[in-house]
Design brief:
Layout: E1 2-8, E2 12-19, E3 24-28, H1 34-43, E4 49-51, H2 57-60, H3 63-70, E5 73-77, E6 87-91, E7 96-99, E8 102-108, E9 117-121, E10 126-130, E11 133-134, E12 137-138, H4 146-157, E13 164-167, H5 172-182, H6 187-201, E14 209-210, H7 211-217, H8 226-231, H9 239-252
Parallel strand pairs: 3-4, 4-5, 5-6, 10-13
Antiparallel strand pairs: 1-2, 2-3, 7-8, 8-9, 9-10, 11-12, 13-14
The structure holds zinc ion (ZN) and fe (iii) ion.
């Protein structure tokens, strides 16, 4: 499957999905319709599916126009059927949905919103994590608890290490600065920051990242690790307390 990030609004990404063998075309989280239309017209493609990770306007803003133009089907979480505009196909936690013959596992990952999901493409090992897991960061907790968000992040952590992570926003540069402030002894992080700086100076996306790197670099995935706990003066405290502390620090950053 071919995946192309499409920058939308100020810092959002929509993702074009091309299942070329079966001529199935999808888009994940179209904040707005026009950049998607431009891509489809340039490539002379029609759109079959619109996949939404959650109901926020910067993820569903293009739904109705794209649906009208291409008769595409809108796919989203069953619990959010009342607030994902134009939804057609409702999915449940752990359900497998077929994008052509490609199997997509749905993970319900509440915290940012109560109905947030991750689309995991099993064969390609690709996860669309919306506003739950960012590269080097995690989403704000709007509708859930810290405990829920941490459980959701653990679900993503349990995916195969080589999973490519496609997230909803280009926040990596600022996230890296935050991680470096509190994860001072992480050498890998300093190296990675150079790469991020270079990409962003050319206005190139830092996505996709992969789970293996995130596990080493993303402070929100390291709350159970002693080095980080020591830096925060929280040795041997429960991971959800450490996570709450880190999330609060990020909110003030
Ligand atoms: Zn959001
Ligand atoms: Fe968002």
């Amino acid at each position: 499957m071919k995946i192309t990030p499409i920058p939308c609004l100020t810092d959002n990404y929509a993702y074009m999905l091309e299942n070329t063998n079966e001529k199935k075309i999808g888009v994940v989280d179209p904040s707005e319709a026009q950049p998607i239309i431009n891509y489809l017209e340039r490539k002379k493609l029609k759109l079959n599916y619109i996949l939404n990770t959650h109901h926020h306007f910067d993820h569903v803003g293009g739904n109705s126009e794209l649906k009208k133009l291409y008769n595409a089907k809108v796919v989203g979480f069953i619990g959010d059927k009342h607030r994902i505009p134009n939804i057609d196909i409702t999915l449940e936690n752990n359900e497998k949905w077929n994008f052509g013959k490609l199997k997509v596992k749905i993970l319900h990952i509440p915290g940012h919103t109560s109905g947030h999901i991750c689309f995991f493409f099993e064969k390609d090992k690709v996860a669309f994590t919306g506003d739950t897991l960012f590269s080097l960061g995690c989403g704000k907790i709007f509708e859930g608890t810290h405990g829920q968000m941490l459980t959701s992040l653990k679900k993503i952590k349990n995916l195969p290490k080589e999973t490519k992570i496609y997230c909803g926003h280009e926040y990596t540069y600022k996230n890296a600065k935050f991680c470096m402030k509190y994860d001072t002894s992480n050498i890998n992080l300093k190296k990675y920051f150079k790469k991020v700086k270079e990409l962003r100076s050319k206005n190139l996306p830092t996505v996709p990242t992969n789970l293996e790197d995130e596990l080493k670099l993303n402070i929100f995935l390291r709350c159970d690790q002693i080095e980080l706990q020591t830096n925060l003066n929280m040795e041997n405290q429960e991971d959800f307390k450490v996570f709450r502390k880190v999330r609060d620090l990020k909110d003030q950053f």
